[in-house]
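Notes from hallway chat w/ T.B., transcribed later so I don't forget. T.B. wanted the structure written out for a chain they're using in a teaching module, and asked if we could keep both sequence and structure tokens in one place. Agreed to drop them here.
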Amino acid sequence: LILAGGKGMRLRPYTTILPKPMMPIGDMPILEIVFRQLKYSGFDSIILAVGYMEHLFRAYFGDGSKYGLKISYSIEENPLGTAGPLSLVIDQLDENFLVMNGDLLTTLNYKNLTKFHINSSSAATIALHSRNVDIDYGVVHYDNNNQLIKYEEKPVIDFSVSMGINILNKESILRFLSPGEFLDLPDLIMKLKEHQHKICCYSEDCEWLDIGRVEDYKIASDRFNKNKSKFLK
């Protein structure tokens, strides 16, 4: 299931003309790059969860036959979040299925992610990416008594972020879905955890960019154009 129903507000004015997953990276929409990568990784059936400008997706991608894929469409009459769309198509999904955002440029190995999820027998697997943030100030740490603990001059903070790519187990999530109810994936994941389901995280050395902001879109376009073979086999 590929989530492609958002309005892409942070990418305006571009997204007043095109939905965000249809934004061109090089000579094709970023969503087409995702389709080609998934096909290469062995996926053959995709559901597009669409809403905003859904007619453009249908007109461009059709039934997916030109990519060797079967593409169907799930229409959101009202915004349902990143997990709510699952409730509309759950009976069409395999026992373990991929759910991801449609505006990502990545070199993630989808085969390895899927294999990791199945071998771990988890209810959900979250693909992670490492990010570094440079702090341009002196960071002061102090205790409840206002006593200095330590002083860091311009530290670099390392952390892991969700790539917006997940593998879910259908049987595990069924009880948490209600047709037409708004639900985000982080909330669904936390519900699984609260009910003692196994949640795994997967990391690998790969490229990853979310094109949600104008500056990120420009970086993604530049990286793709400089090395297309890195993203498309």
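Follow-up for T.B.: Residues 172 and 195 are 10 Å apart (CA to CA). Might be a good example for the class.
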